[in-house]
Fold this sequence. Notes:
The protein is mostly beta strands. 15% of the residues lie in helices and 48% in strands. The chain starts with a helix and ends with a strand.
Amino acid sequence: xxxxxxxxxxxxxxxxxxxGVARSQSNDSLSSPLLRNWRIDIHxxxxxxxxxxxxxxxxxxxxxxxxxxxxxxxxxxxNQITPNWGVRGRLINGKYAGRRDMGSTYYSMEAKxxxxxxxxxxxxxxxxxxxxEEYDYRIYGIAGLGLMNYRADLYxxxxxxxxxxxxxxxxxxxxxxxxxGDISLGVGMDINLADNLKLSLESTYMGTGSDKLDAFVGSxxxxxxxxxxxxxxxxxxxxxxxxxxxKTSSNEASTSWKARKMTExxxxxxxxxKETQQTEAKEKxxxxxxxxxxxxxxxxxxxxxxxxxxYGNEEFILSIELxxxxxxxxxxxxxxxxxxxxxxxxxxxxxxxxxxxxxITIYYSQLPSESxxxxxxxxxxxxxxxxxxxxxxxxxxxxxxxxSYKFSTVGSFKQVxxx
Length: 419
């Protein structure tokens, strides 16, 4: 009966974890965060045990290593809800061990472990890194709750005699193992190998309210702890795109932590998108928008143009020319591309280029001396809808005289079928 109750609890955990995913899949758009920014990791490493049956530091024992460790491995599925916060389910399978000479008896312990947990992660690097800064790694904290299924066998090491077991058919877990709740705390580091591929290094402590993980109850009144230190490889994906059978590109669906971090910058362009709604009305009349911000100053204008027609998923060059007259200082240019268009990473002389999905931001810490500043940006379609498309551009020059000058424009092209 206990075994059935445990199996039911495991099924409930899985059901709760996947309910959000199932609901999200009923939506045909990518507006829900549960459809995006998923990641699956496989990992392996060492399981360490801290408890009563462990070598005391400094003591001399006839064993090859100062402490026992065993192999652990598992699977982690993560949904990055925001650029900083993530929620994940983790599974670990493996063994842990220990030994200690207590004078009258030289104890040796071997144990098997299956641990499942639901955890949250937070990007600690965000406290010291600028939101628009490009980076290739991040450090994150880990916290969560889990369930251990374990069986521990205690032996007399010298005489190779069995003493007793914990979780050997008398527990409520799988195959009669002992079921024990745990709290996990740790830290990890992601290294960006490619758009969709990550290398992860983690170390997590799993604390329990039990002193029986080693089948030995000591006199210290301290509970046993496990540590899992691992290396893994993770792959990012979007559930909706795979479910619908659409091909996913590295630019649009990498959902890497790097791209997610850049969306913080993209969020700032939401205000810009509202400002360009007025521009769209003017564009219908065939006008190119030019805005003069400060009275008595020369007009600052920009022009944006693209090929008259774009065929299928062929990359094309979007051109922008900024007429700044004799102004000097800093500048920020923001672009909002049509749906299902993106810009790969690219170099622009004298500027910092940041891309996040449909949103592009170009930063000049010092504008070129020329009165006209040309920009050429490579754009990649990803199975877009056919018909007329528009690119919205807004920007601001912070001149060296302390004044600000804003500008905006719209570029148009027609998306057609492949050649």
